[in-house]
Amino acid sequence: MNIDHAVVLGLPSARVTATVTEDCARACPSACACSSAERGCSVHCDRAGLQRVPAEFPCKAASIDLDRNGLRFLGERAFGTLPSLQRLSLRHNNLSFITPGAFKGLPRLAELRLAHNGDLRYLHARTFAALGRLRRLDLAACRLFSVPERLLAELPALRELAAFDNLFRRVPGTLRGLANLTHVQLERCRIEAVAASSLLGLRHLRSLSLQENRVRVVHGGAFRDCGVLEHLLLNDNLLAQLPPDAFQGLRRLRMLNLGGNALGRVERAWFADLAELELIYLDRNHIAFVEEGAFQNLSGLLALHLNGNHLTTLAWAAFQPGFFLGRLFLFRNPWCCDCRLQWLRDWMESLGCVADVPCASPGSVAGLDLSQVAFGRSPSGLCVDPEELNDTTSSPDPSPGPVATTVSRFSSLLSKLLAPRAPEEVVNITQGLFNASWAQGLPSHGVEGSGPEIEFFLGTSLLLSVAQHMVFVLHRD
C-alpha cells in the first residue's frame, strides 16, 4: 500500500516532466538543440550562424544560449513571453543596439550575459526595465565608454556585475546606491581614480576588482560605505601614494592586493582598521621603507608579499613576529644582511615562515641567503656586521695596482736603455737625463772613458736610482 501511495504521489511529477519534454521538442527552433530536464527546457543555439533571434522558443524554456552568432539587433520583446526563462546568454555576437523593452516578457530572468559584443558601446537607461529579478549581469568587453546613471536603478535584486574590459575612465556612477550588490568586476577599464563618492551606498559589497586600470588616485574614505568588503584588488595600477584613510571602514577586509604599483613606502595608517586581513600583496612596487608598526595589528595575517621591491632592511618593529604565523615573501629585494636583519634570520630558523632572502651586501656575504649568514659577536656580546670587502681583496683575479703598473713602466724603459744599441741611439736616449739641472754638478773626474760611454753609464745609473726611489715610495703609500 505504501508503494502504491508513492506511485500515486509521483504521477503529477511524471506528467509535468512529460509536458516539459513535449513542449521542448515541439517548439525547438530548427537551428538549435533542445533538451529537457527536471527544472525546465534548455535551448542551445550557440554557433548556429543565426543573424536574427528565432521567432519562437519553447514556452517552458529555462535557459537559452545564443553565444557566437551574428546577431546585430534586439527589437522590443525580442524573445516573446517566456515566463520560465531564468538564464539568457548572448555573448560573442555583433550586437550594436538593444531596443528599450527588448527583455520584456522575461519576468523571472535571473542571469543575463552580453559580454564580448564590441559594437554595443551604448546602452539606453531603460534597457533592463522590467528585469526585477535579475541577479547576475555580464557586460564585459562591450567597449562601453559610459553607462547611464539610471541604467541599473531598476534592478533591485542585482548581486553580481561583470563589466571588465570596457572604456570607462571612472567608476560608473550607476553603481551608487545598489545596496544588494555583492560582486563587481571593473578590471582593465582605464579607470583613473576612485573618488570619495564612487562607491556610496554599496553596503553589501563583498568583492571589488579594479586591477589593471590606470588608477593614480584613491581618495580618503572612498570605501567607507563598503563595511562588509572582503576582497579588494587594486593591483597593476599607477598608485604612487595613498592617503592615510584610504581603507577606512574596511573592518572585514580579508584580502588586499596592491601589487604592481609605484608605491615607495608602507605607512602604518593604511592598515589601522584592517584587523581581519589575511593576505596582503605589496609586491612589484618601489617600496624602500616600511614604517614601524605597519603590520602590528594584523594578528590573523596568513601571508605578506613584499617581494620585488627596493628594500634593503626591514625593522622588527614593523610588526610583531610572535603574532605573525603566516608566510613572508621577501625575494627580489637588494637586502643588506647586517645586524639589522639578525632578528629576521633568527625568526627564519625558529618558525620557518620566511625563505629566499638573498643578500646584496655587505661584500663578504653578497650572494648568500640570509639564513646562511653567521653574525659575529663583540667581546661585550653585541652583534657585529659582516665586513664590506674592497675590490682588490674580493676579486679572484685582481687587476694590476698602481705600484705594479709603475714598476712595469720603469722596467720597460730600462730594457730599452740596456738593450744593445748604436752609439747614436744611446746618446739620444740619455741626453735628456744627462742634461737635467740636478745632474749638472756630477764630477767627471775618476770615471774612465768619455763621450757616449760616459753619458750612457751616468744616464743608466740615474734612471735606476729614480726607479728604486719611486717603487719604495709607492710601496710605502
Number of extended strands: 25
Spatial strand arrangement across the major sheet: 1-2-3-5-7-8-9-10-12-14-15-17-19-20-22
Shape: elongated
Rg over CA atoms: 41 Å
State the helicity in percent bands.
10-25%
Distance between the termini: 116 Å
Largest sheet: 15 strands, mixed
Hey, roughly how much beta strand do the residues contain?
A: 5-15%
Count of DSSP helices?
A: 6
Low-confidence stretches: 1-11, 391-458, 471-477
Average pLDDT value? Answer: 83
Structural class: alpha/beta
Keywords: Leucine-rich repeat, Repeat
Pfam families: LRR_8
Organism: Erinaceus europaeus
GO cellular component, one term: plasma membrane
Walk me through the structure:
- InterPro entries: Leu-rich_rpt, Leu-rich_rpt_typical-subtyp, LRR_dom_sf, LRR_TM_domain-containing.
- One of its GO terms (cellular component) is plasma membrane.
- Pfam families: LRR_8 (PF13855).
- Keywords: Leucine-rich repeat, Repeat.
- The chain is of the alpha/beta class and 477 residues long.
- The chain has a domain at 403-476.
- The chain contains 6 helices and 25 strands.
- It has a 15-stranded mixed β-sheet with strand order 1-2-3-5-7-8-9-10-12-14-15-17-19-20-22.
